[in-house]
């Protein structure tokens, strides 16, 4: 910087100039620290392992889009499928971008491992994705519930084509009454 | 000026350093992940979108006001079709419930819905305010009435929003012409005359906007055709099709090559070929299921004066749904191949509320849900009634012929169905691919 130029500047401008440099450096240091924490934090590897364990194949597609910017800790809890769709829209607004194929895998990951399902209201597509059943079985579930609502996991397991092991593994995510709206 | 430039340059450099540091750190974190990295994202960044809101708009009253309703009833499809609000027509108490609503459509770019009435008007409502945006009246002088109950100004029967959402095609009031109306302003843009179909009523248009199938409640008894096939860009009638009796509700396949029509005195439908102008097939429900009831003058449950007033097809054209007043049910025909030989499938019959006219069908664009005339909501794939629509007083909504399933984001209409359940090219293509894959899997391929 030209010392003469500096000498000609009013004190207020010099202060602002100095502030801009300091602010920039502080911001850079802060972001690097946050990213560094994600990179080096003792829990991150465990969280990644936990997230991957839900579905290792599809988690490969989640990583470049989701955990590129934040820790898996932010999504390792269940929501309704409409809730997840709202989150996806929000993330897209923040700049999360993916190909159609990637979004398909990401949707599969969340539906399979992290979605509550309202068994007495979800449509056939959601039932198929979350319960891991084919379309014919999903239709049978809808037909069954129009006659008599499902009350418990055992009712669901009684529908031909439903995998009992799968139902047992996701039992905490089966809802037999609607979720509150904010979820 | 020079000072400001230097200040901005320095600040920009600082910010760039910050962003570069951040990206670098994120890349490292990614590489340290437990699994291999998927292909890089190649999609463009999409703008923020609020969650969609799915609403059902039902325009009332139905025939003769017998349903005891008035206004457009709005229901929440995301929450068990609970009541949201009623949009009034601005009538004085002495005018309630107002004239029968003859049709409803909507426009995404104009953010409006439109209802046509037997009272000689078409009314546009702004969906942001729910206020009347404009009212279209038909002709300035009285017209020759072609049918009992028609309005003297010649306006209006079923409306249809043309692709792009900027123009509405609207039937005159049971007369022999159609209006083209500007969706934004309500101004008349043109008129299509169909002299051989004297009582315009129902309509369907192909997705490319090139072909319109314009139906009329007319037939051989009055030496008239039942359907006009129209080259829409040129506003020219290509040919007419005459069915065995007066034509009532219709549906078309995705390219408009076939029209499936309810006709008077038939529990079932007939198929017309729009390229040749010929009626090619009559499809009846098995005679023992309806003919004796239809012949019994004491039978009370034939709304609209015929056994089948209501027809639609799933968007993928795999099924044709036809109302069956004789048995208070919706009957379903499987529709394989080129759609010329539907096969009745009694295992798919959907019983609805007995004694209530179920005289129309509309479907959501994805073909998952159907809304039928008695107020039942049907899961299409399961062939089961899953809900009955009710108003704010808990009363069932009957005479539910004018229904739109619409999606909103931030108060703006972003997706809409139309009043007619017709074939959709993309859904047909997806079905063919599914069937092909299934066949390949069965063959071990």
Write a structural description:
The complex is a heterodimer of chains A (183) and B (445). The longest helix of chain A has 30 residues, at 11-40. Chain A folds into 2 domains: 3-40; 57-175, no CATH class. Chain A has 183 residues and is mainly α. Chain A has a 3-stranded parallel beta sheet with strand order 1-2-3. Chain A has helices spanning 3-8, 11-40, 44-54, 56-67, 81-93, 100-113, 124-131, 135-147, 153-157, 164-169, and strands spanning 79-80, 115-118, 174-175. In chain A, helix 4 (56-67) crosses helix 6, helix 6 (100-113) packs across helix 7 (124-131) and helix 7 (124-131) crosses helix 8. Chain A is elongated. By secondary structure, chain B is mainly beta. Helices cover 12% and strands 37% of the residues of chain B. Chain B has 3 helices and 30 strands. At the A-B interface, helix 2, helix 3, helix 4, helix 5 and helix 6 of A face helix 1 and strand 28 of B.
SSE order and pairing:
The complex is a heterodimer of chains A (183) and B (445).
Chain A: H1 3-8, H2 11-40, H3 44-54, H4 56-67, E1 79-80, H5 81-93, H6 100-113, E2 115-118, H7 124-131, H8 135-147, H9 153-157, H10 164-169, E3 174-175
Parallel strand pairs in A: 1-2, 2-3
Chain B: H1 2-31, E1 53-60, E2 71-76, E3 82-87, E4 101-107, E5 112-117, E6 121-126, E7 132-137, E8 155-161, E9 167-172, E10 177-182, E11 188-193, E12 200-205, E13 211-216, E14 227-231, E15 236-241, E16 247-252, E17 258-263, E18 268-273, E19 278-284, H2 291-295, E20 311-313, E21 319-324, E22 329-334, E23 343-344, E24 350-351, E25 361-363, E26 369-372, E27 376-379, E28 384-388, E29 403-409, E30 412-416, H3 425-442
Antiparallel strand pairs in B: 1-2, 1-29, 2-3, 4-5, 5-6, 6-7, 8-9, 9-10, 10-11, 12-13, 13-14, 14-15, 16-17, 17-18, 18-19, 20-21, 21-22, 22-23, 22-24, 25-26, 26-27, 27-28, 29-30
């Amino acid at each position: 910087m030209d010392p003469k130029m500096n000498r000609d500047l009013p004190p207020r401008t010099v202060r602002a100039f100095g502030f801009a440099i300091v602010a920039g450096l502080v911001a850079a240091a802060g972001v690097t620290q946050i990213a560094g924490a994600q990179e080096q934090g003792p829990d991150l590897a465990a969280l990644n392992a936990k997230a991957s364990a839900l579905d290792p194949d599809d988690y490969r597609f989640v990583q470049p889009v989701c955990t590129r910017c934040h820790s898996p800790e932010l999504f390792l809890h269940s929501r309704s499928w409409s809730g997840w769709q709202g989150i996806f829209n929000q993330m897209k607004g923040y700049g999360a971008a993916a190909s159609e194929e990637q979004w398909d895998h990401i949707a599969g990951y969340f539906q399979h491992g992290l979605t509550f399902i309202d068994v007495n209201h979800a449509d056939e597509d959601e039932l198929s994705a979350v319960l891991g059943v084919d379309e014919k079985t999903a239709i049978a579930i809808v037909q069954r519930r129009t006659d008599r609502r499902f009350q418990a996991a055992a009712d669901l397991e009684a529908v031909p084509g439903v995998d009992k092991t799968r139902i047992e593994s996701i039992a905490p995510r089966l809802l037999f009454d609607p979720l509150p709206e904010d979820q | 000026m020079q000072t400001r430039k230097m200040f901005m340059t320095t600040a920009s450099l600082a910010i760039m350093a910050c962003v570069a540091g951040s990206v670098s750190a994120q890349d490292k974190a990614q590489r340290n992940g437990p699994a291999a990295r998927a292909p890089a994202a190649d999609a463009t960044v999409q703008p923020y979108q609020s969650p969609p809101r799915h609403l059902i708009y039902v325009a009332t009253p139905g025939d003769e006001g017998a349903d005891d309703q008035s206004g457009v009833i709005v229901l929440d499809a995301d929450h068990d079709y609970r009541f949201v609000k009623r949009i009034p027509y601005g009538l004085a108490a002495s005018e309630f419930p107002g004239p029968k609503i003859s049709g409803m459509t909507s426009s995404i770019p104009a953010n409006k819905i439109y209802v046509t009435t037997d009272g000689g008007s078409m009314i546009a409502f702004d969906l942001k305010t729910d206020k009347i945006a404009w009212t279209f009246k038909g002709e300035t002088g009285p017209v020759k009435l072609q049918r009992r109950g028609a309005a003297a100004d010649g306006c209006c029967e079923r409306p249809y929003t043309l692709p792009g959402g900027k123009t509405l095609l609207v039937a005159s009031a049971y007369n022999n012409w159609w209006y083209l109306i500007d969706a934004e302003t309500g101004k008349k843009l043109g008129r299509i005359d169909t002299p051989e179909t004297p009582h315009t009523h129902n309509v369907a248009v192909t997705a490319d906007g090139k072909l319109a199938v314009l139906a009329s409640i007319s037939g051989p008894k009055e030496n008239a055709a039942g359907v006009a096939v129209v080259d829409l860009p040129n506003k020219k009638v290509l040919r007419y099709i005459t069915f065995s009796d007066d034509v009532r509700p219709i549906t078309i396949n995705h390219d408009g090559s076939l029209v499936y029509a309810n006709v008077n005195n038939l529990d079932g439908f007939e198929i017309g070929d729009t390229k040749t102008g010929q009626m090619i097939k009559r499809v009846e429900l098995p005679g023992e299921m309806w003919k004796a009831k239809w012949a019994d003058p004491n039978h009370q449950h034939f709304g609209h004066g015929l056994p089948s007033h209501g027809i639609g097809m799933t968007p993928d054209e795999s099924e044709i749904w036809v109302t069956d007043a004789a048995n208070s049910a919706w009957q379903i025909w499987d529709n394989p191949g080129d759609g010329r030989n539907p096969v009745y499938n009694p295992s798919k019959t959907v019983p609805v509320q007995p004694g209530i006219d179920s005289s129309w069908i509309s479907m959501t664009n994805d073909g998952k849900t159907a809304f039928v005339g008695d107020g039942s909501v049907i899961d299409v794939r399961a062939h089961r009634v899953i809900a009955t629509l009710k108003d704010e007083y808990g009363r069932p909504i009957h005479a539910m012929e004018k229904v739109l399933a619409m999606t909103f984001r931030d108060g703006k209409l972003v997706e809409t169905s139309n009043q007619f359940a017709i074939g959709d090219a993309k859904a047909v293509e997806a079905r063919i691919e599914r069937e092909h894959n299934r066949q390949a899997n069965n063959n071990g391929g």
